[in-house]
Amino acid sequence: MCSQAQPLIYPSPCLQPMSGVRGVLARRSLEEVQSIVEKALRDYVEERSEDPAMKYARDILLAGGKRFRPVLGCLAYEAAGAKLDDKMLRSALAAEIIHTATLVHDDIYDQAKLRRGRPTLHSQHGLAHGIIAGDYLFTLGYWLGSEQGPEVIRALADSCIAMANGELLQFDHIGNLGTTPEDYYRIIDGKTAGPIACGCKVAAMVAEADPEIIDAMDNFGWEVGRAFQMVDDLLDLTGNPRMGKPRGTDIYEGKMTLPIIHALTSLHGNDRKNLADVLMDFNDDRWDELIALLDTAGSIDYVRSLIDSHVQRAIEALEPLPNSNQLQLMAKFARKSALRTL
Known about the structure:
Blueprint: H1 30-47, H2 52-61, H3 68-79, H4 86-110, E1 114-115, E2 118-119, H5 121-125, H6 127-146, H7 150-172, H8 181-206, H9 211-235, H10 249-253, H11 258-266, H12 269-280, H13 287-297, H14 299-317, H15 325-339
Antiparallel strand pairs: 1-2
Helix pairs in contact: 1-3, 2-6, 3-4, 3-8, 3-15, 4-6, 4-8, 6-7, 7-8, 8-9, 9-14, 9-15, 11-13, 11-14, 14-15
């Protein structure tokens, strides 16, 4: 673990490529896979263009982004031994559309005005339209997943059940300064890591891979998803106005992110009391005070070290798979997830 103090901005200099999946020259870039997914999504939106609900949903579906989940699913499918085809693309779109449905509903209960720099669906078209469009996207995602059979649709449903439970658990811990690391993992496993793991697992299932490969993809997804959420926690301390999320959004909302939880459990005496006071009465004038307390607790470096650890575990989870271009891209994807600035 890197012990030297680092500035707040990611990337972490501690993170290095792992040795388990080196040595194959990539023949296709992540950006090319992303382009394939983007075209498939646009084609599907056009295919459903006569649906009244698509009129409201299309903008958020086509708002851009890195298509993290479907790209990872396509890579997992090929790494599991299959060749990318329409069957997998539609399965990948199912995961992306369900994810988009959660964003629509997230924006409603967060009362968010912007999503990726654009007006949120409900703020532009009204609350009722936002709720119905989100419901439509959930159903559309399940419909696409059902094309691959009952096991796939059951996996998607299980993931969404866990996601709902994770969201509610997070609500229960808003402003709760006694939130533990175990609570945090239960929340992020439901909200973030579980859906990513589901996408990787479903890809291997659709590829009709051996159980060992399906389990490897599942484990990879869990670890990447945990790292992904922890990076989000750090990004909240720097902000990203380009994405419509100013610095400290989670702090203002009382969400217990990992840097905050670590500091609350590490600090004692006046430092712990001061941190509690900052969190319970937070405003922009207290940023320097908050960052100083996090620095005293070593919380930023602690979270960075955990991100690196989860990325390492993700790449090690791929060891049962034969080395391939797609495997290299999955390992690269895991590392990029920890270095992203969104």
